[in-house]
Input
Amino acid sequence: MTSPSALSSGGISTVAKRLIGTPSVGPLLVLLAFCVIFSLTNPRFLATQNLSIILQQTVIIGTLAIGQTLIILTAGIDLAVGAICVLGTILAGKLANSGYDPVLAMALAVLACTAAGVAAGSLISGLRLPPFIVTLGILGIITAALRLISAGGAFAVNDDFLGWTGSTIRLHGFVVTYGVIIMLLLYAVVWFLLNQTQWGRHVYAVGNNPEAARLVGIPVGRLLLSVYVLAAFIYGIAAWLALGRIPNADPNALQTANLDSITAVVIGGTSLFGGRGGLMGTLIGALIVGVLRNGLTLAGIDPLWQDLITGILVIVAVALDQLTRGRR
Amino acid sequence: MAPVEPTTQAPASTGVILEARNLVKRYGHVTALDGVDFELRSGEILAVVGDNGAGKSSLIKALTGALIPDSGEILLDGHPVHFKGPLEARKLGIETVYQDLAVAAALDISSNLFLGRERRRPGFLGNVLRMLDKKGMRAEAERSMAELKFRLPSISSAVESLSGGQRQGVAVARAALFAKKLAIMDEPTAALGVRETGQVLDLIRAIRQRGLPVVLISHNMPNVFEIADRIHIMRLGRRAAVVSPKTHTMADVVAIMTGAAKVEGPA
Output
């Protein structure tokens, strides 16, 4: 039974299994497929300048998706990601425009975002309210409050420090903004936390089987709180990156951030049921969303079609997750 | 290994690991525990049997800290203990395996074995960066599984890829790995088929062989008779008898459980 051919076919099938089992391979193939299609339809797509633009366009959603990944891994969902980020941009802008030191203004804004995470996390872990309802409520509260504060209007934020994340540097001829670098650093740090520390392992365990996690002595409530606080802190940093992209604080900005960040997480292979997936998939998922929007724009397709296609993508990704779960 | 013969062994040579005296627990008019005594000796598998509502699970909850008795005392190694919760019992070396597979299915075997008790790398990586010692935990997990002679696929495969028996094996092995005093298993084979039950029973024997006493709660009489050194029989919130499977038959035990037979001799 152990003929060489049997052995080698076994070897190939284990390699194939490994590949299929590695969660970010599927999304990576999708990303590559989109890149191939768009480069065939428009040669400008693969120009370094365009690739650099895609990265910059991915910065805000890509960063918000880090926090969203953490929360979805615990089987939660965050519908306030855009609202908390906008809270950051408005507060930082208001404070800086009224004469505060910009560094202090940004720090206070990040602190306020983090406080929103403390509120969400406390309600979810303490009162055991469903994350869906809590974050939906926070979305409503923040959105209304911001419109009251800013009297409904957008305003310009012209400050060197607040806009610094949009300034560019050249790396081997490739132009990137400091915002892109900050986003990638955040990915690296949170990846490390998720994959190499006890905290990360407990995030997976709580999302996978909260009862088992509690029985082995993991403080489930405290862990959930820490996840919502860290996620909201990251949304605060995303607010800084957003001010670097567009020097404007707008209470009506980032309306599609919920859909886009959840899409990035889900097409990156993280399960909405919690406990499965990872951050590398999310980065790829965010890039897929960015590539799709950029490629369709280059092809001269109406932006409304981009939302439509994003919507279809997220449903297909969730359906695939559901089907593979059913087989287990 | 030599079978333990509790009826003939002198009490002096048999260390009592966990003892309960006269535990009482009432819920309003319902008396769950009506002055129950309990005794687990070193190196034995003690089965706890009883009809539904006889107080089995209340007794086990009291012993694992999940329930605080109204009166009575619990002694661990001869010292009185007062558990305020399951974590306290765990800290003192009592591990519990629950009926429903208490594992995180998406995580691998090694992660599940060390869940909640992960080890960190030595030095800067562990102390400052809080890095997990994944390699060390995997090696330790493999070593323990080999020692318990429990066959599993790769230690880094996800628990959800295992059979039900293997999954419960992971939960049982986790208890064995960390229990310093004793392991309590609450219907560990209730959800398993015949062959898988056999695997888990073998594992429980291997744990006894390592010197760890085990309390086994089970409805399954053939399993109890196959594996237990002594059988603690609950009836009406009290200990009706403790018998040896060598001197009593399954029919005897069922008769005591249901009150059809009076108990001969002191429990």
Observations:
- The beta strands of chain B are 16-27, 30-41, 45-50, 71-76, 79-81, 94-97, 182-186, 214-217, 230-235, 238-243.
- Confidence is low (pLDDT under 50) at residues 1-13 of chain B.
- The radius of gyration of chain B is 19 Å.
- Chain B touches chain A at residues 86-87, 90, 96, 98, 102-107, 111, 115-118, 120, 129-132, 160, 174 (CB under 8 Å).
